[in-house]
Amino acid sequence: MGLAPETRASLLLRLKDRSDSEAWELFLQIYQPVLYRMARSRGYQDADAREIVQDVLLSVSKRIDTFESKRQSGAFRAWLSTI
Question: Binning pLDDT at 50, 70 and 90, where does residue 73 land?
């Protein structure tokens, strides 16, 4: 996921609060386009890429509590790529 920007640890902490709509909106602004480009670059058509993005975002919302920052650059992106 080399196209993704660094994700602030503070944003990731805020995402664990599912009611923090501001944090989720910011996360979507950052990662929705990245995930879409990734899906498209793997040959998926527009509709399929959009569905994949939605599936990944849903998985993130369900599993963000399991993410543990190791204070390493790219740790979140590595975790995200496993989803």
Answer: low
